[in-house]
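Lecture notes, continued. The same structure-token format from the folding unit now serves as the input rather than the output. Read the line below as a description of shape only.
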């Protein structure tokens, strides 16, 4: 399942006035191929840009500037006061931006680049951060952001605080990071961190598809939990991710019951009833095996997917430890590691990401599976099914798995 690739894709994000642009510049100076998606979007709106015609068709000639490009102020007056109009604009521009990004990444790979960094301010908020192999977050404290923002844009304190309040808090965004660049100190200290990150990323191999047989994937889903949180069953998760071309969280939010069309981070309201997010660990591991992943990718994907339906840190930690355990089973084809000290290491990693330990009962269940005592319809059952496998048939689940195998053979956007 899947096609080989050699380019490590890295996302770079951060709050306003957090030093993100400086971090990207230093990564570029260190020899990393980079792209600024905000700049790409601007270029598409300039005279001759690919977005000009479609945007004028959608919003009228009043948004066309005298130079033949889009008058961004006129367009902003139309779209930013209306969520439906903003979504209509995004539906036009975002695919064009993605296409340009993909072309630049392919060009970098053809020239021998080992990694490609995409700089975008709202990767987490837009729910598109899981298309990257690693996520870097540029971070400084709120007071440092405030001081820099006022100095840079000449804003009053009240105006600067209002801009900060409109964004995701930097501390929350850090929870999604694989690497945090702390820009609160001196420029020299920031540059040292960037140099270390660039060296580590260059030494990180691009993940390859695992080559998991479809029968083993079917075993994980047939013997694991049949239901998932908010109606997002394992099979439905795979179908939605395949249709979207990735773990695009807004698309997965629309696959919930009832569908959620707002910002994906607002989909989890209160304490969710029914299955916990660990019920999706088997399907998530099957997806990662097909598309290419490693431990950090599985960890990040499990934490974000859990955040779609749950807010409780313990529930998120349970999803992470389950995914890491099943990923180990998928790679090794055996369950005995689940009864070893490795389970505690995974639990520690889950706690570090979620801010709370995973539920003890879930750890007991995974350890029991490692001793060959897996119960059907549980995460432990998914682990056993990953080893034993199950026959493919003509049912909906088998169709989903075959569709995933075909989609995995296509290059990632």
């Amino acid at each position: 399942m899947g096609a080989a690739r050699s380019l490590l894709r890295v996302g770079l994000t951060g709050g306003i006035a957090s030093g993100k642009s400086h971090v990207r510049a230093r990564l570029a100076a260190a020899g990393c191929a980079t792209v600024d998606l905000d700049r790409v979007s601007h270029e598409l709106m300039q005279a001759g840009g690919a977005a000009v015609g479609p945007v004028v068709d959608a919003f009228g000639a009043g948004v066309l500037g005298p130079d033949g490009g889009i008058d961004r102020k006129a367009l902003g007056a139309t779209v930013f006061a209306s969520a439906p109009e903003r979504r209509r604009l995004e539906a036009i521009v975002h695919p064009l931006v993605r296409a340009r990004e993909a072309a630049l990444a392919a060009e970098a790979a053809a020239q021998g680049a080992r990694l490609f960094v995409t700089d975008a301010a709202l990767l987490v908020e837009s729910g598109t951060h899981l298309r990257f192999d690693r996520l870097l977050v540029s971070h400084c404290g709120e007071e440092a952001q405030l001081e820099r923002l006022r100095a840079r844009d000449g804003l009053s304190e009240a105006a600067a605080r209002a801009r900060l309040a409109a964004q995701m808090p930097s501390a929350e965004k850090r929870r999604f990071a694989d690497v945090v660049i702390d820009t609160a100190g001196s420029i020299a200290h920031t540059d040292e961190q960037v140099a270390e990150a660039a060296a580590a990323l260059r030494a990180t191999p691009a993940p390859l598809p695992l080559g998991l047989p479809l029968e083993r994937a079917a075993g994980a889903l047939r013997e694991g939990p049949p239901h998932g949180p908010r109606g997002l069953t394992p099979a439905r998760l795979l179908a939605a991710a395949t249709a979207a071309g990735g773990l695009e969280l807004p698309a997965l939010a629309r696959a919930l019951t009832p569908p959620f069309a707002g910002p994906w981070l607002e989909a989890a309201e209160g304490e969710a009833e029914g299955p916990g997010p660990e019920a999706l660990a088997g399907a998530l591991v099957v997806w990662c095996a097909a598309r290419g992943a490693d431990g950090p990718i599985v960890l990040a994907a499990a934490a974000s997917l859990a955040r779609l339906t749950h807010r409780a840190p313990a529930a998120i930690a349970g999803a992470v430890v389950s995914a890491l355990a099943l990923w180990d089973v998928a790679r090794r084809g055996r369950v005995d590691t689940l009864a070893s000290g490795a389970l505690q290491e995974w639990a520690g990693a889950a706690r570090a990401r979620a801010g709370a330990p995973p539920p003890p009962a879930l750890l007991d269940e995974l350890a029991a599976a490692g001793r060959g005592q897996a119960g059907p319809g549980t995460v432990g059952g998914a682990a056993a099914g990953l080893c034993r496998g199950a026959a493919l048939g003509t049912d909906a689940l088998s169709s989903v798995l075959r569709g995933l195998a075909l989609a995995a053979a296509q290059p990632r956007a």
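Point for the exam: The longest strand covers residues 8-14.
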